[in-house]
Amino acid sequence: MTVITICALSTIPSAMFFWNETISVWCGIIVTLLGLVISAFSYTKIFFKLRHHQSQVHDQTLQQPASLAGQLNIARFRKAVYSALWLQLTLVVCYLPYGIIVDVLWMFQEFSPPLYLAGYIAATLVFFNSSLNPILYCWKIREVRQAVKDTIRHVF
Question: In 3D, which of 95, 97, 107 has the Cα closest to residue 27?
Answer without folding.
Answer: 107
